[in-house]
Design brief:
With 242 residues, this protein is an alpha/beta fold. It has a single domain, classed as Metal-dependent hydrolases (TIM Barrel). It is built from 7 helices and 10 strands. Strand 6, helix 6 and strand 7 form a beta-alpha-beta unit. Helix 1 runs parallel beside helix 3.
Length: 242
């Protein structure tokens, strides 16, 4: 099946905000532009995750640093000819959630989230209009003590994460279908064009904003696609579930 006309990276990390990222904002945007993407969501690790700032820094300083890569991407977006949208990846002990629809001002107004239980934080964000996707819910790694699932506190699940195994993604799909959660895809790209396999969400008309994206995802109006970046071959999958 052909790729969607308009493709979007939904799970993306850049340096220096994500401490584990290998590519800068400009390198990342240049790669996705060359790959024919209409836009990307910058979803760096939030202040509860692997962020490149001291945990002892004041909350406002952490938020300013966190949004610095996104703001740089926005400045570059017009001259580079690619859209940039805002996202956040929040964490709890290796359990990660992609958050769409909340801006820098919202986070500045809500420092209390740093002290909240994750379920309460997720509920607050959903009540405030955010789209919440649990990323790679069945990821296994040495630093993850156990798998945590939050089926009553998310809208959907990353059923295809380009960095995870087929087994982990298959388990995520089974989980999403069993609970009637939205199915979602992203690359979890930390290395721009060095990432061999990519995944994301696509559609036949361009998205115009985070709110537009959220509405389309909730209405199952976007398609999951995958792409082998090593051979320039690709496949698209019409398996979004409402």
């Amino acid at each position: 099946m052909d790729l969607p006309k308009y493709r979007y990276e939904t799970h993306l990390h850049t340096s220096p905000v994500s401490k584990c990222a290998k590519a800068s904002v400009s390198e990342t945007l240049a790669f996705y532009k060359s790959a024919g993407y209409d836009g990307v969501f910058i979803t760096n690790h939030f202040i509860d995750g692997n962020i490149g700032i001291s945990p002892d820094a004041p909350y406002e300083e952490k938020i300013a640093f966190y949004f610095s890569d996104y703001e740089e991407a926005l400045r570059l977006s017009k001259e580079m000819g690619i859209k940039v949208f805002c996202g956040v990846e929040i964490s709890k002990g290796g359990t990660d959630f992609l958050v769409y629809g909340l801006d820098k001002g919202w986070y500045l107004r809500h420092p209390e989230i740093s002290e909240m239980e994750k379920s309460s934080e997720l509920t607050l964000m959903m009540d405030e209009g955010a789209l919440i996707i649990q990323a790679h819910p069945f990821r296994e790694a040495r630093y993850i003590d156990h798998i945590r699932l939050y089926p009553r506190h998310v809208h959907g699940v990353e059923t295809i994460n380009a960095c995870r195994t087929d087994f982990e993604n298959d388990m995520a799909k089974l989980y999403a279908q069993s609970y009637g959660l939205l199915e979602f895809a992203g690359s979890d790209n930390h290395a721009a064009g060095a990432r061999p396999f990519l995944a994301g969400m696509g559609c036949e008309t361009p998205i115009t904003s985070e709110a537009d994206f959220i509405a389309r995802v909730k209405n199952s109006e976007m398609d999951i696609f995958t792409w082998d970046n090593t051979s320039s071959s690709a496949s698209a999958q019409n398996n979004m579930k409402g």
